[in-house]
Amino acid sequence: DKKKRAIANCSKAGLAVVLVCCVIPGGNEAELGEIVRFAKDNTPTVKGVFFQPLSFFGHYPDTEKQRLTTPDILRALFRQTNGEVLPEHFLPGRCEHSQCSFGAFYQLDRDNRLYALTRLQPGARSENAHLRVRESIKKTWKPGPQRTLTVGGMAFMDAWNLDATRLSRCTVQIIGRNGWLMPLCGKYLTSTC
What we know:
alpha/beta, single chain, 6 helices, two-stranded antiparallel sheet
């Protein structure tokens, strides 16, 4: 109820909201469709929903390390939205490694159904790609009457699935004590920063 009141207050104040939830195997993985429905019902205040499959930091017995993958999330969204959200609506992130993030952009029609606006737009890599991403986010998550919704997610790495190639392409950086940049997934695996 507190979170619903917070969203209502954001709506009154003209603020945009992006919902972010960690998806836990055997926990809330059966609620992804309901989360998307909640987001749809609260547009235009809610501009996005991002799912983060659980990563394992700390000590876990091998029997407790059940992992959800990006394909698991996309299949669950397809099933739980009765086919309204399709796996082919999603594209990998344009700047980072293709296995790190996924996203789709939708317009809501008069019947409150999602219409995918996501299109594959191959683009050449450039040094200023981060500026294009920043401008895109500013436009899609800007408060306003547009009934649009971004659905996506990011699969963070942990010690059991660390991939150096993915790490080298990270676009989410933490600024360390000496001004060094540390990839987010690497930050939680070392004492550096």
